[in-house]
Structure prediction request, 345 residues.
Amino acid sequence: MSRLRRLPALAATALLVLSGCTSATTGSTTAGRSSASVDSAAPSTAPPAARPARVRLHGRVAFASDRRRNVDLYLLELPGGQLRRLTSSPAADLSPAWAPDGRRLAFRSDRDGNDEVYVMNADGSRQRNLTRNPASDYSPAWSPDGRRIAFATARADPTGNDLWLMDADGAHPRPLVRQDGIDEYPVWSPDGSRLAFNCTLGRVLPSQVGDFEVCVVNADGSGLRRITDAPGISGAGGWSPDGRRVVFASSRDQDPDGVSACGDLYLMDADGSHLTRLTDGPASDCGPSFTPDGRHILFSSDRANPGGDSDLYAMNPDGSAVTWLTDAHSEEQEPDFTPCKGARP
Prediction:
């Protein structure tokens, strides 16, 4: 499934979002403006109850954006709002995934003529191709121990995609999931024992797109099972830190005949039970993921510009305290968060 829906971008700004990393990155710019969505430095006489609850983040958010008329990867440091462009290839760079140590990012790019998995340092340096295969390789996900990367590939089946694993340096690529249809966008459980991912099982919707649901598999390829089954499209987002719950996006209650999982956000147990709806339209919410401490969920949404470009948001795991992270006249998607070292909870 394509994540960046459109490519008309203009220069944009980022909202300053509260406590986090304090050091500016060399070459970065502080992109921000005064807004009702941002705490003001001036004293307030309003009672505390009059101020909406707000998420407080301490770290860095990597994300994909077409803000300079090309899809590139950016880094937003919090709280200062320092914004750095990490990639500048004329190709499309997507799907950033932090290594567990916060020093590297894996990502997807078609700069060599087809989709490949790349890796770079957290400052954008040393960008290099890990997969180097004529087939399409994309949607990388780093294992919690940092030793393996899961990814989707068409190298064994040009009519669909399977999930494979490779060493973190790109060596020893090998199949993990082989089945009918499309399997993509894996996310690891925090203990590294399981992966959730998007799967079609060979099914196609009337809209002629894959009938994506959420599947789970053990890290050795055993125990594969589908854990959602609903109208529309559902896309795996991320695991809670205890490995008991999975957050995901689904069009089931908004646009079941559409071609995207963007709709509302849901939380369920890892076996598919105890479904909870976290957002309730009409905004198109996409790509949720937990912060490593489990205290917040990041996602993208067009709620500030209905039917238009998406910005980045954060909220509590119960759907409360929705906080605007970016305010851009461009498409902002696929946020991935890594905390500052020593950041307070």
Remarks:
- The CA atoms of residues 278 and 319 lie 5 Å apart.
